[in-house]
Amino acid sequence: MPNRTFTIIKPDSVRKGNFGKIISRLEDEGFRVLGLKKVSLSRTQAEGFYAVHRERPFFPGLVDYMTSGPVYAAALERSEAVPHLRKVMGATDPAKADAGTIRKDFGESIEQNAIHGSDSDENAKIEISFFFAESELL
Ligand code: UDP
Ligand code: MG
CATH number of the domain that 83 lies in? Predict the structure, then answer.
């Protein structure tokens, strides 16, 4: 049974022209793109999206980074969507990510790490609804 996850192709990836390469990898991994939007996050949106990290020391820098340029938000579908995306994405710190993962190949630093992926089915649902109406998922 396919289920859903959510990704953001982050500003560093878009700036460097890696959007297509990253989406291509996700398609090669069997993800179907249900919805895709290019957006410039406002500070309020970035703060809301990452609200769980509000008290962390890296939060202000994370919000600066996520508002530093446009991103692509995408709802994805696949079997085991959440754990599979976490696996192909790699560890938060690209320097510690496994070889062949998206963050290892495209990330610059623990902050500018190329891509977001939901960490649970529950958060995938919340994150998808942050950007998409159900009618926009095809
Ligand atoms: N982040 C950071 N410094 C840290 C940890 C995280 O700048 O020490 C940023 C990074 O962009 C990361 C995001 O905050 O992707 C969310 O952190 P989380 O721990 O949820 O990592 P993820 O789920 O993205 O692997
Ligand atoms: Mg996370």
Answer: 3.30.70.141
